[in-house]
Write a structure and sequence with these properties.
Largest sheet: 7 strands, parallel
Order of helices and strands: EHEHEEHEHEHHE
Number of helices: 6
Bound molecules: NADP nicotinamide-adenine-dinucleotide phosphate
Strand order of the largest sheet: 3-2-1-4-5-6-7
Oligomer: single chain
Structural class: alpha/beta
Number of strands: 7
């Protein structure tokens, strides 16, 4: 089984690699910009094949081919793709720079779509592929909203909507798209955005849920946006 995880250098993505490293015969393609952090992933389990891909998702071009060229030789099919990489800048709406706003929309909503498009020839067909897009409760319709997170939440809402759209447009492809809208998890992203706040969930706990969902949920649901939160929206 081939599993690709973006944002694997820290937080939830790092722990997701640990989750899939427990599964025999699993090849994990772990993507981030941080070569050193990706190298530490190989300590998870010596018998599992972890393939680090050092890549800046900002470089994902309009033309296809740049990520496929970095995959391990002989990889012909992706069974699970977890679009986990994300960016959060917590600032009042009127103070956020255009560059930060663009970066959030690019990494949080456009890049997952570009990556899916790039990997289309390696997904679905006779073997199913489950694409799990990681969104946020902030981008879940009707949820409580927080000052400082307007662009972040809107970019995550766009990812959720993209999930529904792709499920409809590609329903004959053998690819199943679902989206998880996460509540607070105690990661560096959360600590940087909300210093002092303590979330009830650890990244490894959330990774257990996401990993199990990625392995099994495509048999039960398609094109769904699921809140994964201990609080009421
Ligand atoms: N933590 C929470 O409370 C929470 C709540 C709701 C949703 N989420 C979502 O869950 C996901 C994981 O969150 P987290 O808290 O684990 O975040 P994190 O600790 O900040 O990790 C983010 C990951 O994204 C990668 N990334 C960012 N920009 C990238 C780029 N240009 N190219 C490649 N990789 C890039 C980072 O890798 P490098 O910097 O090494 O490239 C890093 O591995 C995110 O999508 C986040 O929005 C988190």
């Amino acid at each position: 089984m081939n599993v690709m995880i973006t944002g694997a250098s820290r937080g939830i993505g790092f722990e997701l690699v640990g989750y899939f490293a427990q599964i025999p015969d699993c090849q994990i393609i772990a993507l981030s910009r941080n070569a050193q952090a990706l190298e530490t992933l190989t300590t998870f389990n010596k018998t599992t094949c972890i393939h680090p891909v050092v890549y800046d998702l900002n470089c994902l071009p309009e033309q296809t081919g740049s990520v496929i060229g970095l995959l391990p030789a002989g990889t012909t099919h992706i069974d699970v793709l977890i679009n986990n990489a994300g960016v959060l800048v917590n600032k009042p709406f009127s103070e956020i720079s255009g560059a930060d706003a663009e970066r959030m929309f690019r990494i949080n909503s456009l890049v997952p779509a570009l990556l899916i498009r790039e990997l289309l020839p390696m997904m679905g067909g006779s073997e199913p592929t489950h694409v799990v897009n990681i969104s946020s409760m902030g981008g879940f319709q009707g949820s409580q909203k927080f000052p400082g997170l307007s662009y972040y939440s809107a970019s995550k809402a766009a990812l959720a909507c993209m999930t529904e759209c792709l499920q409809e447009e590609l329903k004959q492809s053998g690819i199943v798209f679902n989206c998880l809208a996460l509540g607070a998890v105690q990661t560096e992203m959360l600590a940087e955005a909300f210093p002092g706040y303590k979330a009830s969930l650890l990244p490894a706990e959330m990774a257990d849920f996401i990993g199990s969902f990625a392995l099994h949920a495509h048999k039960y649901m398609r094109g769904k946006i699921i809140p994964v939160s201990l609080t009421t929206p």
